[in-house]
Amino acid sequence: MDIMTALDIGASGLSAQRAQLNVISMNMANIRTTKTEAGGPYQRKSVSFEATPVYSPFDQAMQDQLNRNLEGVKVLGVIRDERPFKQVYDPNHPDANDQGYVFYPDINVVEEMANMMQAMRGYESNVQTIESAKRMFQKALTIGQS
Q: What InterPro entries does the entry give (predicted)?
């Protein structure tokens, strides 16, 4: 694996973790949203990832057998969570139905915080990977100078 491949893999991980953090922050911001532009309460979202090859088909043909299984990650899409909404009895709320119930998104703060910590750890590990690749490249340049 060369330096650029290591950087590509780290960059794909950074991009994926950033997308996950954006969706988590959107979920946290809309935890009490009872009415969206679509009309209903906010629907919790999550991010779907997919492993993706780092090399183009031409690069894969030119690489040796050990480097063929290198893969990065990409965001496949943002998925709407199909959990049912929470019903809370609040007849004074402007979005309450005829029986006095308000529908809130089923977003658990603890779950979202755990997902955020996982995404942050993934982001940090990808940053460390990129930093390590840069240090190795700089050391290789130093060896070549002497």
A: Flag_bb_rod_N (IPR001444), Flg_bb/hook_C_dom (IPR010930), FlgC (IPR006299)
Q: Which of 134, 7, 27 is nearest to 72 (CA)?
A: 7
- Specify whether the CB–CB gap between 45 and 27 falls below 8 A: yes
The owner of tokens 């089923």 is 106
Residue-wise pLDDT tens digits, 27-66: 999 999 999 998 889 999 999 999 887 766 666 666 665 5
First to last CA, the chain: 24
The length of the chain is: 146
Which among 88, 73, 68 is positioned nearest to 119, based on CA atoms?
73
Give the integer Cα–Cα distance in Å for 30 and 22: 12
The pair of three-digit structure tokens given for residue 109, joined into one six-digit string:
């703060």
pTM score? 0.82
At which residue do the structure tokens 């340049």 appear? 141
SS (H, E, C) 82-144: CCCCEEEECCCCCCCCCCCEEEECCCCHHHHHHHHHHHHHHHHHHHHHHHHHHHHHHHHHHHH
